[in-house]
């Protein structure tokens, strides 16, 4: 049993008795060299990875000047999470012997000032406002960082930080009961609360904390069989949930939770792009239209690789470390790893031997209707699993991204292929599933309909004309739509994607109603479009219509060739209609970067080639 877990288990037995002094608490801290060392109570520490420690030390030190230069300005309108993170950055540098800022007295006053500001900002019930009022989960993000601060400074036990420790301890003690009693908004909030309550209990034991952890865990972890969590998010769910579950596994003696994190990390390997981004098109959170980086998973892969002695997970961790400078930035700077590692020194252990992460594979995630194919630096992604067919609306927590295909060839990136028919302003094609196509390849499909409403039957008529306000579902009106007979027009769409040589053939079949449509290809900014059949679309920035022949998008030596064009004219305008649900709210579904539209009119039979 580790020292972290032993402290938690022993602590729960003493009930509400708080740890009297804030010195000497928290997991074992020792500023040891990169070799075997001695931890708390004479425990022998495994040999540590010196290169890794050098890397995180340098990254952590880079954060210190920024904190010192900006912290006072940031206290004018305080952000609890940002302030707690800033204290954590300074505390990590203060305690760490390898840091250029080790025991630098210029760090003490800023830490004290920020801690006092946080204490003043904290409500009487122990909670913070962070977008949400008196929010237990948002408070947990701040308290988790402050628990690390308290542990690091307590183990360091320098008299010069006594005031900081007293203030931070007061904040943590005040927040614990409120987090143990309050509620949450999203699935991952439950696990964040659990992880932070485990941290608080390790410092200030209270039976309420493990009791609340048990209540949340009794609901079951929201994970699909394939490893994705229910929010399907590359950062908001997977990273927050992963770190939280590992904390509970260590501190609350729940080793079974390692398996949840292990399964998620294994499936995430197949979401990695060659440049270190993680596929997010299937997410139910804000990242479904953003580029996210694998660096957010760095310590998750490292911890499980060391814990399991797993070469496959070690390969990802080692690849992140090898390419850390060139990888896209993550949610947090890489220097934030320093405090986590000093707080949980097993993370500094040496990774098991490994090769490289997989670069040739096919992966079909049936839980999310996502398919990934990689052949070296050429990848493509298919997605047919939005929530739109069952819940036809746009809202936080729903998967609504209309991108059904992305294609990469090295640095030339086609971020998004979408199809937008102008059918009763219902918006983009969103597939109702993803399945193997007869003859090979993959099939995406949908059949949507729009109603014309007939007169109400006699039993539902009202002489005063005061009918219920109901949903069409395209719009709302006082028409009592559910009780009306209807006639329908329908639009059927089928897209079949097949590999052909070193590229793709994408076949479209759209029929049952006669409407104009546009295929939208959105490329990553930074390259050049070329092709004699490209014409600029008036009034739409960086947008072209491919009228004839093929065109290319080139970045350096990498190129994607696509086409052919499909003509132009009044019957097939270069217009992408996002649908009335979006335009009514002033929404914008236009991707960033250069766009190419290929237009047509139903009945539509067309084959797009990507090479």
TrEMBL record:
Signal peptide: 1-30
InterPro entries xref list: TAT_signal (IPR006311)
Domain of life: Bacteria
Keywords carried by this UniProt record: Signal
Protein's name according to its UniProt entry: Lyase
């Amino acid at each position: 049993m580790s020292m972290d877990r032993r402290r938690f288990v022993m602590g729960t037995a003493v009930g509400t008795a708080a740890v009297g002094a804030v010195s000497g608490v928290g997991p074992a801290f020792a500023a040891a060299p990169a070799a075997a060392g001695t931890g708390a109570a004479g425990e022998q520490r495994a040999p540590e990875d010196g290169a890794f420690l050098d890397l995180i030390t340098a990254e952590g030190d880079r954060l210190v000047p920024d904190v010192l230069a900006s912290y006072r300005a940031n206290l004018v309108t305080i952000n609890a999470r940002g302030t707690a993170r800033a204290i954590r950055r300074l505390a990590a540098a203060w305690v760490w012997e390898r840091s250029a800022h080790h025991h630098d007295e210029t760090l003490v006053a800023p830490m004290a000032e920020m801690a006092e500001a946080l204490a003043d900002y904290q409500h009487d019930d122990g909670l913070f406002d962070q977008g949400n009022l008196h929010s237990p989960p948002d408070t947990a993000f701040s308290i988790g960082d402050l628990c690390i601060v308290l542990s690091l400074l307590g183990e360091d036990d320098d008299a010069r930080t006594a005031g900081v420790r007293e203030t931070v301890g007061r904040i943590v003690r005040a927040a614990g009961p409120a987090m143990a009693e309050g509620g949450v908004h999203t699935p991952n909030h439950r696990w964040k609360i659990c992880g932070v309550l485990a941290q608080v209990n390790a410092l200030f034991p209270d039976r309420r904390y493990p009791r609340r952890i048990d209540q949340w865990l009794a609901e079951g972890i929201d994970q699909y069989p394939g490893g994705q969590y229910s929010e399907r998010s590359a950062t908001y769910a997977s990273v927050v949930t992963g770190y939280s579950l590992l904390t509970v596994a260590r501190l609350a003696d729940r080793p079974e939770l390692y398996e949840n994190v292990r399964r998620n990390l294994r499936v995430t390997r197949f979401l990695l792009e060659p440049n270190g981004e993680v596929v997010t098109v299937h997410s139910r959170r804000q990242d479904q239209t953003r580029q996210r980086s694998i660096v957010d998973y760095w310590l998750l892969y490292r911890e499980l690789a060391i814990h399991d002695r797993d070469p496959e997970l070690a390969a990802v961790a080692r690849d992140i470390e090898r390419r850390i400078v060139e990888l896209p930035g993550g949610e947090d700077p890489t220097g934030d790893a320093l405090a986590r590692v000093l707080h949980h020194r097993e993370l500094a252990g040496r990774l098991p031997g490994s090769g490289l992460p997989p670069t040739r594979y096919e992966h079909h995630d049936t839980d999310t209707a996502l398919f990934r194919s990689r052949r070296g630096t050429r990848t493509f992604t298919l997605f047919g699993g939005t929530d739109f067919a069952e819940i036809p609306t746009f809202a936080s927590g729903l998967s609504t991204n209309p991108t059904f295909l992305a294609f990469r060839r090295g640095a030339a990136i086609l971020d998004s292929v979408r199809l937008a028919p102008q059918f009763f302003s219902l918006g983009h094609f969103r597939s109702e599933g993803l399945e193997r196509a007869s003859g090979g390849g993959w099939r995406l499909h949908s059949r949507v309909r729009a109603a014309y409403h007939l007169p109400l039957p006699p039993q539902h008529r009202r002489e005063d004309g005061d009918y219920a306000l109901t949903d069409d579902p395209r719009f709302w009106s006082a028409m009592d739509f559910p009780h009306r007979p209807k006639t329908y027009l329908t639009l059927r769409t089928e897209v079949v994607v097949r590999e052909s040589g070193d590229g793709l053939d994408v076949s479209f079949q759209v029929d049952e109603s006669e409407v104009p449509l546009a295929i939208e290809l959105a490329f990553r900014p930074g390259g050049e479009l070329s092709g004699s059949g490209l014409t600029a679309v008036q009034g739409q920035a960086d947008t072209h219509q491919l009228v004839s022949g093929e065109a290319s998008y080139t970045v350096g030596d990498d190129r994607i060739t696509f086409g052919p064009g499909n003509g132009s004219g009044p019957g097939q305008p270069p217009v992408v209609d996002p649908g009335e649900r979006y335009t009514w709210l002033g929404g914008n579904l236009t991707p960033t970067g250069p766009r190419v539209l290929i237009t047509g009119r139903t009945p539509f039979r067309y084959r797009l080639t990507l090479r």
